[in-house]
Amino acid sequence: MIRREEADATWLIHQAAHAYIAGQIAEHWVGNGSMQLSPREELVLAAYAHDSGWIRAEQRPVLNHYGQPATFTEMRLDDHFDIWRDSIQIVFAQNRYAGLLTSLHCSALYEQRLRYVDDPPSAKARIRHFLEERHAWENRLIEALSTHPRYGLAVVPEALALNLRLLQVWDYLSLLVCMGPVFEQTLDDVPLHGQERVVIQVAANGPRGIAIDPYPLRQPLTIWIDARPVIGGPFASDEDFQRRLAETGYKPMVFEIGPLSARSPINHGDR
To answer: Which terminus of the chain, N or C, has fewer Cβ atoms within 10 Å?
Structure first.
């Protein structure tokens, strides 16, 4: 679950809705104007489906230590491992190459956590064990796909690194859109053409959107999702929160993604 704080409510966005936005970004990605994704369909599938394992956990959402709805970064470590395993297997069942990219994406996130997050030693040990599991699985799959007529060239290190970075960028841009507010920042190592990597600028595009320069999508995007606005909190227990959420209807949200030069202050509210 993604928690988005706005002035009048806390919006709860499903991880699958975030992945839908990542998929829309992937579908329209043209880099510098002529970038060809390869293999295109599998990359787009990974963007759309990489968080498919969250559905069960989101049926019984929990609170963080402050009595507020727990966001995806506040889950128990073992629960997070199980969610990733489910996500990877769901994507793998649809397409092995997309499943490989999803696992590599997961592994890269936990490798970053080991480098930058000061977890207790016991948690670091569990992460290392999980990464050993993932790397062994990935290596077996890479070997199995190395002679595949479609994926053989797509599992060589350079191609895998490029496609993983694309998935990471799409995931990050979608998270920026969902979590808000967007602060001006740069994102480096962004593939725009072949092996070419550049730094892009990202800024707010109205209260619910992002503006990007150079703009890597085929056209400006208006993306609709449904989410639930929760009023109040902190909650006394997971059960209290779950009852409140069950009584809360979905409302539409709309996000705008466009070029930095054309960003708009328009507020779409919760239409």
So the answer is: C
Taking the C-alpha atoms of residue 87 and residue 105, their distance in angstroms, rounded to an integer, is: 11
In a domain, 215, yes or no: yes
Q: Residue 267 domain-assigned? A: no
Angle separating helix axes 157-179 and 40-49, nearest 10 degrees: 40
Q: How far apart are CA 146 and CA 133, in angstroms?
A: 20
DSSP state of 28: T
| Domain of 41, in residue numbers | 2-262
In the predicted model, what is the mean pLDDT of residues 185-205? 94
CB of 23 within 8 A of CB of 40? no
Q: Is 39 helix (H, G, I), strand (E, B) or coil?
A: coil
The half-sphere exposure of 158 on its side-chain side, counting CA atoms within 13 A, is: 5
Q: By the 8 A CB rule, do 32 and 214 touch? A: yes
Give the C-alpha separation, 147 to 149, whole Å. Answer: 6
pLDDT in tens, 5-14: 998 899 999 9
Q: Is there a domain that residue 269 lies in?
A: no
Structure tokens at 192: 């725009």
In a domain, residue 271? The reply is: no
pLDDT band at 270; cut points 50, 70, 90 = very low
| Domain count of the fold of the chain | 1
Amino acid (one-letter) located at 105: H
